[in-house]
Amino acid sequence: MLKHNREFQLVYRKGKSAHSPALVLFYLPNTPFITVGFTASKKVGNAVKRNRAKRRMRALFYGLEPQLAAGSYILVAKAATVETPYAVMEKALRKMAERVGALQV
């Protein structure tokens, strides 16, 4: 789990990113294991909406984790994260992971 600001900044600066209408994925293949961080800014909404967005992102990520390569990941919520259907976000996350080269087939 990424916890410190410097860890997030390293992935933001040096990692690859992919965007969808509801999520942003950052990936940096720098570790032999998977580390992950989830963020939702105040643009997403109030605390209830931000926490819901983070819960949904955690569920999406951990469902896809067995197929992901080792490295550091950051999932960033957008305002649409709360309203977008789960199946649509799942498909978008898979496509973004392929784009950044993080999906192991």
Automatic annotation (TrEMBL):
Keywords assigned by UniProt, alphabetized: Endonuclease, Hydrolase, Nuclease, RNA-binding, tRNA processing
Single annotated GO MF: ribonuclease P activity
Domain of life of the native organism: Bacteria
Keyword Hydrolase assigned: yes
Enzyme class: hydrolase
Catalytic activity: Endonucleolytic cleavage of RNA, removing 5'-extranucleotides from tRNA precursor
Cross-referenced SUPFAM superfamilies: Ribosomal protein S5 domain 2-like
Listed Gene3D superfamilies: 3.30.230.10
InterPro entries tied to this protein: Ribosomal_Su5_D2-typ_SF, Ribsml_uS5_D2-typ_fold_subgr, RNase_P, RNase_P_CS
This enzyme's EC code(s): 3.1.26.5
A matching Pfam family: Ribonuclease_P
Family: Belongs to the RnpA family.
The protein's role, per its UniProt record: RNaseP catalyzes the removal of the 5'-leader sequence from pre-tRNA to produce the mature 5'-terminus. It can also cleave other RNA substrates such as 4.5S RNA. The protein component plays an auxiliary but essential role in vivo by binding to the 5'-leader sequence and broadening the substrate specificity of the ribozyme.
Subunit structure, interactors included: Consists of a catalytic RNA component (M1 or rnpB) and a protein subunit.
The protein's name: Ribonuclease P protein component
Top-level taxonomy: Bacteria, Pseudomonadati, Campylobacterota, Epsilonproteobacteria, Campylobacterales
Gene coding for it: rnpA
